[in-house]
Design brief:
Largest sheet: 2 strands, antiparallel
Order of helices and strands: HHHHHHHHHHHEE
Number of helices: 11
Shape: globular
Number of strands: 2
Radius of gyration: 22 Å
Strand content: under 5%
Strand order of the largest sheet: 1-2
Oligomer: single chain
């Protein structure tokens, strides 16, 4: 997990320090505009023109283009490494051999992974146009797409999304309750990072030092939380397949490995050996 965080979060932050992302300036300006216009019933044309000019000026120029290109490259790279980390945790939950190499073993599927993530964003956005709730439901509907692609690398991005939709049918609320169980840890992690950041501002440290301290604090918290969440989600995927994450405890008290070895159609015919909605995978 530490290697994964160093290879993604730290790389992204270092690139932002070297080549500042122009979209960060746009977001900052938008926040300032919203604050300054709060309570105002009418927005003048001159104000809108000023906003538009600031956005274009922030996104124009050779340096801005290089920054946008660097941000896109890092984002796509992080998507691929993220799937590698997901595969690593899935292998661990199955009791299979895995290692650091799993993080970087899916670049041969980079195009398909990037397409999958882009399609998910587009579909969730389109559903969100109807209302916020359909967008949230859609996000849960597509959560297992990466796992489907890991188990069957030959399928298309759309087929991975279709399999996720079929697997999550009737299980979205279950995964939502699992996600809710992590809120306390996430709040604690955010509070720790915020305190570290505020101490940096109080001590009047340079922005680079403050950013690095906050990043170290965030990494320390995320080492535990990221592994915890990812392993649990991998266990949920095995639960949807109808197989328990090893070691499994059968009704006679014995333990054994998951019989699923990938490459078949078991995902489409889940058979829970414990019957009903057994939740022991999360125990």
């Amino acid at each position: 997990t530490l290697v994964f965080l160093l290879a993604t979060t730290w790389v992204s932050q270092i690139v932002d320090l070297v080549v500042p992302n122009p979209f960060d300036d746009v977001l900052t300006n938008m926040q300032q505009w919203i604050t300054s216009m709060s309570g105002s019933a009418v927005i003048s044309d001159s104000t809108i023109n000023a906003m538009t000019q600031q956005v274009f000026s922030a996104l124009s120029g050779g340096m801005a283009m290089w920054a946008i290109l660097a941000a896109l490259i890092v984002a796509f790279y992080s998507m691929v490494v993220g799937v590698g980390y997901t595969a690593f945790n899935l292998h661990r939950m199955r009791g299979e051999e895995s290692g650091y190499g799993d993080l970087f073993s899916y670049f041969y599927l980079a195009g398909k992974i990037i397409l999958l993530e882009v399609l998910k964003v587009i579909f969730v956005y389109l559903w969100s146009l109807l209302f916020i709730f359909p967008g949230i439901v859609a996000a849960y509907r597509y959560r297992m797409a990466e796992y489907a692609l890991i188990d069957e690398p030959d399928i298309s991005a759309l087929e991975a999304i279709r399999r996720s939709k079929r697997m999550m049918l009737g299980h979205k609320w279950e995964l939502f309750t699992v996600d809710v169980s992590f809120i306390g840890w996430q709040i604690l992690c955010t509070a720790v990072v915020s305190i570290i950041s505020q101490l940096g501002f109080v001590a009047v440290m340079p922005d680079v030092v403050t950013t690095i301290l906050a990043l170290i604090a965030n990494t320390a918290c995320s080492m535990f939380l990221t592994a915890y969440i990812s392993l649990t989600e991998a266990g949920f995927y095995l639960y949807l397949l109808g197989h328990q994450a090893p070691p499994v405890h059968s009704t006679d008290g014995t333990t054994g490995q998951s019989p699923y070895n990938g490459g078949n159609d078991d995902w489409d015919h889940p058979q829970n050996p414990f019957g009903g909605n057994d939740q022991s995978w999360n125990q």
